[in-house]
Amino acid sequence: MAKFILTRLGQLVLVVIVVTFVTAVVMSFIPGDPVSVIAPFAEGQQRDEIRADLNLDDPVPVRYVKWLGGFAPATWATTTPCRPTGRLPTSSGRRSEPRRS
Fold first, then answer.
1. Range of the domain at 65
2. Where are the beta strands (DSSP E) in the chain?
3. How many helices (H) and strands (E) does the chain have?
4. With contact defined as beta carbons under 8 Å apart, do 56 and 67 qualify?
5. What is the C-alpha separation between 57 and 51, in angstroms, rounded?
6. Any idea what DSSP says for residue 59?
7. Backbone angles phi, psi at 42, to 5 degrees
8. Which of 39, 73, 74, 83 has the highest CB neighbour count under 10 A?
9. Which region among 18-32, 40-54, 66-80 has the lowest average model confidence (pLDDT)?
């Protein structure tokens, strides 16, 4: 039973890697500039900085490896967690206190 589970887990990892790589390759062939979608009013130097921040100047395999490196569990702790404020937005734009039962 353990051998079966390990085999399936290995297949799962392989399928995830293949699907994400194929998705990355297909996304690179979409016509247009991703920077123009992200920042349509950005000028030349700003576009270059955004392109460098997103690694869009790198070839697809390099971007994919960098993405995998960013997906590693060691980097999960560096993200900012969502913290509830305890207040709810209203239609007037103000925040109200949650209802108490």
1. 21-69
2. 88-89, 95-96
3. 4, 2
4. no
5. 6
6. -
7. -75, 145
8. 39
9. 66-80
For residue 34, CA distances in Å to 1, 19, 23, 38, 95 come to 47, 21, 15, 6, 35
Domains held by the chain: number: 1
Q: Is residue 28 part of a domain?
A: yes
Distance CA 41, CA 47 (A): 9
Q: Token pair of 9, please?
A: 């887990």
Amino acid code (one letter) for 87: R
SS (H, E, C) 12-63: HHHHHHHHHHHHHHHHHCCCCCHHHHHCCCCCHHHHHHHHHHCCCCCCHHHH
Does the residue 87 lie in any domain? no
CB 27 within 8 A of CB 64: no
The band of 4, judged by pLDDT with boundaries at 50, 70 and 90, is very high
User: Residue 6: inside a domain, yes or no?
Assistant: no
Lowest mean pLDDT among 2-11, 58-67, 88-97: 88-97
Neighbours of 42 (CB within 10 A): 15
